[in-house]
Amino acid sequence: MAERTGFALSVQQPWAWLIVNGYKPVENRDWPTKIRGLVGIHAGKKLDTLSLAQLKRDRPDIPFPATFETGGIVGRARLVDCVRDHDSEWFVGEFGFVFTDAEPLPLIPCRGMLGFFRPQIAASPDGAT
Q1: Alpha helix (H) ranges present in the chain?
Q2: How does pLDDT run across 106-123, given as a tens digit for each residue?
Q3: pTM (predicted TM-score)
Q4: Per the domain annotation, does 103 fall within a domain?
Q5: Alpha-carbon span 50 to 114, nearest angstrom
Q6: Strand, coil or helix: what is 58?
């Protein structure tokens, strides 16, 4: 992990999983951002079960996991733009945060917040974070 992120964005599951696994290149928001660069993708504690059921029906091509990790950072992606229009099927918002280079990571437990935030990650007993 050569490059570390300073910011994270909390996204409800299954949307966080879709972002970090490269299926969803744009995250919808009703506010713009000037933040760019590597961003941690935080999965909130709540699972959007209604959307997940619909996604499983509508997108049988996506191999959803049996369970979703929540309550921490589940991956990272590079935020490259904030747009008001995008050709992705996933864009439905007023603003879209466009991500590239997404990758899942082992769960890093931490508390989420609204908007972009600097995650408070406790060091493990061996001194690693």
Answers
A1: 15-20, 49-58
A2: 999 998 888 888 888 765
A3: 0.87
A4: yes
A5: 22
A6: helix
